[in-house]
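README, section 4: Worked example with a bound small molecule

Sections 1 through 3 covered apo chains. Here we extend the same pipeline to holo records, where the ligand is supplied as SMILES alongside the sequence. The molecule in this example is pyridoxal-5'-phosphate. Nothing else about the input changes; the structure line simply encodes the ligand pose together with the chain.
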Amino acid sequence: MTPDFRSDTVTKPDDAMRAAMAAAPVGDDVYGDDPSVNALEERVAQMLGKPAGLFVTSGTQSNLIAILGHCRRGEEFLSGERYHSMKDEAGGAAVLGSVVPQTLPVADDGSISEDSVRAAIKPDDVHLPISRLLCLENTVSGRVQSKRNLDSLTSIAREHGLKTHLDGARLMNAVVSSDVSASDYAAGFNSVSLCISKGLGAPVGSVLVGDEDFIKAGRRLRKMLGGGMRQAGVIAAACDYALSYNIERLADDHLRASGVARRLSEIDEVHVSLNEVETNMVYLQLPDDVAPGLKAFLAERGMTISPPCPKFRLVMHKDITDAASDSLVEGIADFMAQCRS
Ligand SMILES: Cc1ncc(COP(=O)(O)O)c(C=O)c1O
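The generated complex, written as structure tokens:
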């Protein structure tokens, strides 16, 4: 397998996961008849301490269903200016739900301050949209968000009558890297989305959890969005396998990321902030005159990375071995040596 450092979404199902998929009992999930989907929804709801779950096609669909479920037309959702639900979901909430986006400033560590949430919540005034939902994220660009801050932000939201949603696409990375359980992180939120197709290694699938009424309404929204799947147990089984076998191994990705960061930081002119590496992502900065050449240089050696934005993001995951991460560090060292020779 050629090493691909662009994202943890690139992992491929291994033989054991494929065997679990092949063996899955299935039914028509739109009729509620798929036992593998039903079991997965219950399992994730329980893990996150919520009454009910909904298996959806993607993290984007999960966040969209949450926003459409919590907000009516003309109401607004507040979210971080660089959070996925605000910036990377094609404006779905505004396009499909007429829900007004209100951005909040995000600090380098991915957090949002209490003051910004307080300042953004609108008073009851006919000129203004109604603030309805606070949408947070954990992890944010690989940074673990403190439970204390998440709890204060959600209580401010609650005091003002807002609902709260957590985009926990990589929540299990936060769980593995901290001593906080998934249900503790989820406790202050009305709804949480967990992706199983990122570091957890399933090929498809996210689960949205919340209370029974919210999930019942979410089921209708999922159908409306074209996300009602039929014998989806085949992919639910992959997700179930991932939850059984791939959570604890996230610690290997985190360890590999910190090792890569430490070794890269020893190369002249390569800038990596070691304290920013809290889970599986390493952010790397090279001098402007050489940065544009790195991607093609590594591609020649069979390695794939994303272009800088403005830093390079290098992501460790299940399909990155020690040998692959060694080749990456060597490749970057050789690239810098060649640029400066
Ligand atoms: C934080 C976060 N939320 C949501 C998503 C959306 O997930 P999907 O690609 O499954 O739609 C992503 C995707 O990378 C993400 O990084």
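What to look for in the output: Residues 8-245 form a domain with the Aspartate Aminotransferase; domain 2 fold (CATH 3.40.640.10). The longest strand covers residues 130-137.

Section 5 describes how to batch many such records.
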